[in-house]
Amino acid sequence: MKGRSHNPETKAAVIAALLTGQSISSVAKDYNIPEGTVKNWSVKVKQNGGIVEPVQPQKRERIGELIVNYLEALLITLHAQQKVFQDEKWLKQQSASEVAVLHGVLADKGIRLLEALADKEEPHKAPIQTAGDVPEPV
After folding, report:
1. What is the pTM of this model?
2. CA pair distance 38, 23, nearest whole angstrom
3. DSSP letters along 31-45, please?
4. Strand (E) or helix (H) holding 85
């Protein structure tokens, strides 16, 4: 018996999460989808050079739009965070670990997704460096 089908928006979000480096189990839990389903999608992505399954051009375009919209919303959120982080009074009231997690997770996901998209389009270019990759000044 075939399981339930998932809408393109959910599938795009799951794939985007996998591309950002999240584990199969955490993505499955976040989206309330069986791990086996997420693993199958992940395997198909790897086997098909980043394409889960051949999709109609309209669906492919829609999934691309969803990823772009996600990245746009993420960048707007990061920009808003930057403004809040500039409030020294507020910043001093926060724990360093909470601020780091809040900002770092979102920034890292966005960078990884952009890197995955860039690798797909321009495989000959060097990967984008994240803050953790950049050596500290001496």
Report:
1. 0.41
2. 10
3. HT--HHHHHHHHHHH
4. helix 57-85
Backbone phi, psi, residue 39, to 5°: -65, -45
Torsional sign, CA 39, 41, 42, 43: positive
Instruction: Return d(Cα 123, Cα 117) in angstroms, integer.
Output: 10
What are the pLDDT tens digits along the chain (138 aa)? Answer: 466 788 888 888 888 888 778 889 999 999 999 999 999 888 877 776 665 555 677 777 888 888 889 888 988 988 888 888 888 888 888 888 888 887 787 788 778 878 877 766 555 554 444 444 444 444
Residue keyed to tokens 């808003």: 80
Instruction: Give dist(CA 22, CA 67) in Å, integer.
Output: 16
